């Protein structure tokens, strides 16, 4: 797992937020996985790596594949929150996840 994913997992535990599974496969038979997913709330978090280093998510084919994956998730009813590693580290990801959970309640 990436630094961002490991950090977010720690933040979830420290905040006492339950219900999230890591590497959740959401669109069988596709091999797509969501970094963190709560299937009951249909809420997911993706931690995007390599955003400033030319990683897969920012290059043409990787970006296009992500568009298909996230659009499919949306059509299926998932709310997908996407964050960079820096946004995880500075607490923004956890703060926004809390807001999403509150709105769903």
Can you describe what's shown?
With 105 residues, this protein is an alpha+beta fold. The protein has a single domain (3-104), classed as 3-Layer(aba) Sandwich (Endonuclease, Chain A). The chain contains 4 helices and 4 strands. It has helices at residues 3-15, 60-75, 85-89, 92-104; strands spanning 21-25, 33-38, 43-48, 79-84. Strands 1-2-3-4 form a 4-stranded mixed sheet, sandwiched between helices. Helix 2 links the parallel strand 3 and strand 4. The protein is globular. The chain starts with a helix and ends with a helix. The mean pLDDT is 91.
Q: What structural class is derived from the secondary structure elements?
A: alpha+beta
Task: Provide the succession of SSEs.
Answer: HEEEHEHH
Spatial shape: globular
Number of domains: 1
Oligomeric composition of the shown chains: single chain
Describe the biggest sheet? Answer: 4 strands, mixed
Number of helices: 4
How far is the N terminus from the C terminus? 30 Å
In CATH terms, what is the fold-level topology? Answer: Endonuclease, Chain A
Low-confidence stretches: none
Strand content: 15-25%
Question: What's the short story on this structure?
Answer:
By secondary structure, the chain is α+β, with helices and mostly antiparallel strands.
Name its key features.
single chain, 105 residues, alpha+beta, Endonuclease, Chain A, 4-stranded mixed β-sheet, 4 helices, 4 strands, globular
Task: List strands and helices in order, with pairings.
Layout: H1 3-15, E1 21-25, E2 33-38, E3 43-48, H2 60-75, E4 79-84, H3 85-89, H4 92-104
Parallel strand pairs: 3-4
Antiparallel strand pairs: 1-2, 2-3
């Amino acid at each position: 797992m990436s630094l961002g994913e490991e950090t977010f997992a720690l933040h979830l535990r420290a905040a006492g937020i339950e219900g999230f599974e890591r590497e959740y496969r959401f669109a069988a038979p596709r091999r797509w996985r969501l970094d963190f997913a709560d299937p009951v709330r249909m809420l997911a978090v993706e931690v995007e790596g390599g955003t400033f280093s030319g990683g897969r998510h920012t290059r043409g084919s990787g970006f296009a594949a992500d568009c298909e994956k996230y659009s499919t998730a949306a059509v299926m009813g998932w709310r997908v929150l996407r964050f960079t590693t820096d946004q995880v580290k500075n607490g923004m990801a956890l703060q926004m996840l809390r807001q999403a959970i509150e709105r769903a309640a």
